[in-house]
Amino acid sequence: MIKPLSAAIGCILLAAAGAGHAQQADSETDAAARRDAKTLDRMVVTGTRVATSIDKIPGAISLVSQEQVAHTLALTEDATAVLARTVPGYAESSQAMSNTGETLRGRIALRLFDGIPQGSPLREGGRNGTFTDMGLVGRIEVINGPSASEGIGAAGGIINYISKVPTVEGHETQLTTRYSTQFGTDSSGWKVGVNHAYKGDTFDMLASASYIDRGISYDGNGRRVGMNTSGSVSDSEARNLYFKGGMNFGESLEQRLQFSYSDFKIEGKANYIQVEGCRFDPVECPVPSTNTSERGSIAGALAEINDFRQAALNYSHGDLFGGTFTADIYWADQAMRYLPEDGDDRQLVKVDDDFDEADRIFDQSEIVSKKRGLRTSWTRGDLFAVEGLQLRTGIDLVEDEAAQRLAITNRLWVPPMQYSSVAPYAQLSWDVGPVTVSGGVRHEDGKLDVDSYTTTPFRNSVFVQGGGLEYSETMKNIGAIWRITDGFSTFVSYGEGFGLANIGIPLRNISVPNQSVDRIADLDPIIVTNREVGFNWAGADASFGASYYDSRSPFGTSLSIDPVTNDFVLARAPVRIKGFEANGEFRFNEQWKVSGIYSRIRGKTAFWSSAPNGDYEAGELNKPLGVLDVNPDKIAVSVTWNFMPTANVTLGATTLLDRDLSGSDVREFDDRSFSYVENTEGYTLFDLGVNYDTGRYGKLTVGIENLLDKQYILSWSQVPGFQNYWAGRGRMVSLTHTITF
Questions:
Q1: How far apart are CA 558 and CA 550, in angstroms?
Q2: What is the DSSP letter of 22?
Q3: CA-CA distance, 714 to 698, in Å (whole number)?
Q4: Residues 259, 263, 266, CA angle at the centre, nearest 5°?
Q5: Contact yes or no for 548/533 (Cβ under 8 A)
Q6: What's the confidence (pLDDT) of residue 521?
Q7: Given this model, what pLDDT does residue 376 score?
Q8: What's the CA gap between 363 and 355, in Å, rounded?
Q9: pLDDT for 510-560, tens place per residue?
Q10: Separation between Cα atoms, residue 271 and residue 262, nearest integer Å
């Protein structure tokens, strides 16, 4: 949940989760458990590398609890849906394997799983939101805005999914089964998942396995939803294996060694092919229809996949030279394959007037990436015998490789790219009574190497000379938080972040001969600065928080659709994003509570970037950022009624508002006129979740997504693009049974 609510909600949710056993616990034990929950719930490790109370971190932090994850899972298995419902600045869920358009405050966030990056900043494929079974996620920590402490890729913020930890002494097994349906003959889906935990005096472990089978999706009109060209979760199966084991040792058990391994794969079943719809046109399409799916397959096609594997070894020492030391060595191997397409950019020869349509083929994009790294930190409190003065320092090493190919014909599309960096950092914080002041620096010293390659026939089969680029940037951050009273605090912060543009797009789009990698301006880094001010208040029965931010990047990125190819185009020009977000909760009594979030984001960029030859500078900030970058205004509200000690019901509503954008400009250099217009229609979706804890026979949950079976078009599908006209999912009913023994 959002930062100002975390303490209150942690207590409330803990009480709700254990309601079925409340009558067996005495008040003293229950009070102690609530105090412990409050302490733990207010700790965050993302961006700080050490457990830190959130009321000492200047900035807007969102904490998504295990109960919130479970509530969303009762409605849908979509991995990012929980963020869309609980994090104000997170965009609309795509309801697909692809997370295209799912930005955080209008920028691409760095997604981590137990601290390990998912996907690659070298070739952002919009698939790094589906990488594990959400049933083993214990909580999600979201750092809004750039984070200097995490380095490359964190210019848009951080989303860290953290696996569950054993909490009960001895062995504990949790078995989850779920059945979902939209009442179509081929819409049913099911899941079986098991988590086994063990906690001993010096050793603990978590082992998890799950299998999910999904049917096809239907919209509110009872029509099949089209298969997303960037990857659908519909008509797919997913399996996940996970293991984590740790041992405490040393004279006072102050040292710990932990190993973890994750193996996740989601794969399409290839039972359907997409049938493209059409947008309204008075002549060509007087009766518009969204993309749909029909039974069939494409000869020679490979299954679309997300195949993510990772391993990590962690060592920590609680008393090394008077401080706490941690080190993580990690490895990850990731492959993302997309659906087959027969567009002009997939053909073996250039499509021109002499092209024979009988020679048109299907091909599939596939991105592969490998990474390995070392993350270290050392934290020392009361530095130089100064009470409240804390130092956090360390060094990170990263090696990241990525490439993209056309899988059926095994052709290179984006050449192999390698990025390596050495990044030392240091952060100081000082508690001075009710005020905490913090600041620090991180120096990113990186190098990008790109192999020589030849572009596809669509881009004129030109040869591009490989080469290398060096990046050297120092990011700074400073902020302060003032705890005015026990329940009220205010903060101000300034932060910088470093990132690379989606390098694969400009590389594969080169069509002019005699190009070399080291002369491509689009490969320059993204430096983001973020200024933010906000406050948080929490009382006995209510809480409220709000913040305002201003995010700037002198040479940023934005996505647009090429009107000729309908493909994504990466624009490099100044970007400024401003936003306001708020959240609140009110607890009427022990039975009733209501909570809500609100977000408003607006962004501007230039219609043109500076000319490579220096003829003209970049334009003014006159072009509005559209839905591919910045989400429409969002309001989400939920009401929970604990109508029995062992049962509750939650009714939620999420609204995206209408938005009309327009802008224009004239470039004096050549008197060229530019204009942009975008209109998106909002919608409201309701969902319902009912829980009943039977005690020894487990917990039953009924979830209904899109309760009113509303027909709507996803916001980012309302903008014309290549085969992207998708309706949202209609009513989905799920029954979940969870038993712990």
A1: 17
A2: G
A3: 36
A4: 155
A5: yes
A6: 64
A7: 95
A8: 17
A9: 999 988 988 776 778 888 999 999 999 999 999 999 999 999 998 887 766
A10: 28
User: Do the Cβ atoms of 694 and 644 come closer than 8 Å?
Assistant: no
d(CA 704, CA 216): 17
pLDDT at residue 123, rounded to an integer: 86
Q: Which two tokens stand for residue 675?
A: 């204009």
Residue linked to tokens 């054993």: 166
Residues 6+ apart with CB under 8 A from 353: none
CA 314 to centroid of chain Cα atoms: 24
Q: Of 705, 597, 692, give the one whose Cα is nearest residue 641.
A: 692
What's the CA gap between 136 and 269, in Å, rounded? 24
Q: Are strands 672-680 and 659-667 parallel, antiparallel or unpaired?
A: antiparallel
| Tokens (6 digits) for 167 | 């909490």
Smallest CA-to-CA distance from 234 within 203, 204, 267, 281 is with 267
Q: How many Cα atoms occupy the beta-carbon half-sphere of 590 within 13 Å? A: 8
Calpha distance 116→567 (Å, rounded): 30
Which SS3 state, helix, strand or coil, does residue 626 take?
coil
Instruction: Tell me the pTM.
Output: 0.89
How many other β-carbons are positioned within 10 Å of the β-carbon of residue 287?
6
In eight-state DSSP terms, residue 187 is -
Q: What is the dihedral of CA 286, 291, 294, 300, to 10 degrees?
A: 120
Say yes or no to pLDDT of 32 above 50: no
Distance CA 61, CA 38 (A): 16
What's the rounded mean pLDDT across residues 46-70?
Answer: 84
> What does the alpha-carbon distance between residue 707 and residue 649 come to, in Å, rounded to a whole number?
14
Q: b/e map of 94-105 (b: 16 or more CB within 10 Å)?
A: bbbbbbbbbbbb
**pLDDT band at 20; cut points 50, 70, 90:** very low
Considering only residues 500 and 407, tell me which one the structure prediction assigns the higher pLDDT: 407
Distances (CA, A) of 409 to 198, 301, 347, 567, 632: 48, 11, 10, 21, 40
d(CA 351, CA 337): 24
